[in-house]
Write a structure and sequence with these properties.
This protein is about 30% helix and about 15% strand. The chain contains five helices and seven strands. The radius of gyration is 16 Å and the shape is globular.
């Protein structure tokens, strides 16, 4: 199973090192606001590893905590969805996906240091079947990994067997990629 494979490659941080505890209600609130569920393997990853970076490059979203809106749900999904809709309005041939949350649209789940997004192409099929997609910051259409769901995508990303075109090749100089817990912002 993907989670066992990933845990062998990058063990989850101990609970005391994770910066937030995620409850089922946290996911439900974000899903209701967005009008779409999250795939169960994504939730399992975030709940097990906590908010953080893979390869010091890709940060995945979280439904709770004192984090930047760049990774805090639901704003983390809404912001790139709005940007895509604006780009589509100006260049409809280049940005041909439907706008989120429509079937066939991109629902983001993480962001890179370069401004690329990792997510899924959503549909009326069960979310655990949605293919992963990577939208490069300068690309109109995302790279879709047909038949590859979130958990197996992570294992491939960490080992280097899956290398999105938008990601820099030097990311895989040293594999497996590691995991770094993302600290919460200091209270003001």
């Amino acid at each position: 199973m993907w989670i066992d494979d990933l845990a062998l490659l990058i063990p989850p941080p101990p609970a005391e090192e994770r910066t937030v505890t995620i409850e089922a209600g946290d996911w439900k609130a974000a899903e209701q606001k967005l009008g779409r569920p999250f795939p169960p393997d994504f939730k399992q990853f975030v709940e097990t590893w906590g908010p953080g970076y893979i390869g010091s490059f890709v940060a995945f979203y979280t439904p709770t905590g004192n984090y930047s809106t760049a990774i805090l749900l639901p704003a983390a999904v809404e912001r790139p969805a709005k940007a895509y809709a604006e780009l589509k309005q100006n260049w409809p041939a280049k940005y041909a996906l439907p706008n989120f949350p429509a079937d066939g649209s991109l629902m983001t789940a993480g962001v890179t240091d370069n401004g690329d997004y990792v997510g899924w192409i959503v549909s009326d099929a069960p979310p655990e079947t949605w293919p992963v997609a990577v939208w490069g910051d300068e690309d109109g259409m995302p790279q879709v990994f047909e038949g590859v769901t979130f958990g197996p995508f992570l294992v491939g990303l960490v080992t280097g067997s899956i290398r999105p075109e938008a990601f820099p090749p030097q990311l895989w100089t040293d594999t497996p990629l590691g995991f770094t817990v993302l600290p919460q912002k200091a209270a003001r």
